[in-house]
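[09:14] KT: can someone run the structure on this one? pasting the chain below
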Amino acid sequence: MNNIATATRMTALKPLTGPQVWYGSEMSKRIDWIRPLKPAEIAEFEVAVKRLDASGIDIAAIGPKDLNAPGLQGLVDEIRAFVLHGRGFHLVRGIPLERWSVRQCAIAYFGLGTLLGEPVSQNAMGHILGHVKDIGADYARPEHRGYQTAARLPYHCDSSDIVGLLCLKPAKAGGKSSIVSSWTLFNEMLRRHPDLLPELLKPVYRDRRGEVPDGAEPWYAVPVFSPMPDGGLVATYVRSAMLKAQRFPEVPRLTPQLIAACDAMDALANDPAIHLDMDFQPGDMQFVSNHWIMHSRTAYEDFAEPEQRRHLFRLWLACNDGPALPEVYTRVWQGATANGRPAGIRVPGVPLTAPLDASW
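[09:31] RB: done, structure tokens below
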């Protein structure tokens, strides 16, 4: 992008407005983003879960009609409104883990997820029910994923419309969830670093980490920020994948300008006035938009006893009423579902499964 084109584009950029723009210092004083389950909803969940558990159904085969719990429709509508069309996140509290088996928890969470969207694969193994747990992976290795470690995860986005987490076991210490508005980061970059923002509007190269769709290269390129014709914005950012892509000689080298832009945005995201921290309680379900929220996690110390170690279920959901996306999201970066939404990580010949334990 030459200097004239850069200046022209920057002149056209304006600060974003709407519920997607928020600051952690203000949000932390509110509790309207925490939604306790109502006793009637828990009771309806319980009936549906026990019925499905007794049927022996494969969790991966559960569809939107299987839960058959009309009393949860208000909850589903509320999550969808806040996550897909509002501030971009919602925390639902109160799944009764103490009286449900791990399979029953998975049935409840997966079943609820299917009412929000289509569960899509989260890795090369075809897992549509994921596990966030330290299984001894090395985050420095290109083929290993951060969720398999106890390391701090920098702010990033996942490969779906919504990412959901259900806390089964919290850490002994640490493991705090942090989220930040991509719209707020865009506005702050425009205000504080207008000279660096253009670097985040260009495609940047990222490593597929060995999870390569049929016919694709082991890397891809997608902009961090993509302003949309309706005046909104979608964003995607995984700096670790940008760094790991440098192992391929065919990928352009990171420029000092791009590094400076990422450093500036990371500093903004790490500002306590901008991001929101939350501690998960057992039974908490967090739902986050990948398109206008970046999420992070602090490093954590785990318990010595294997049965007490930090463990979260994870869902990636493709939602038919998700925001309009640039073509690069489903043409270059990911495939598309039958309804044209981001399809997660699909590797040819790998069936979709919903394992009940964390594995490679």
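[09:33] KT: thanks! DSSP finds nine helices and 17 strands in the chain.
[09:34] RB: yep, looked fine to me
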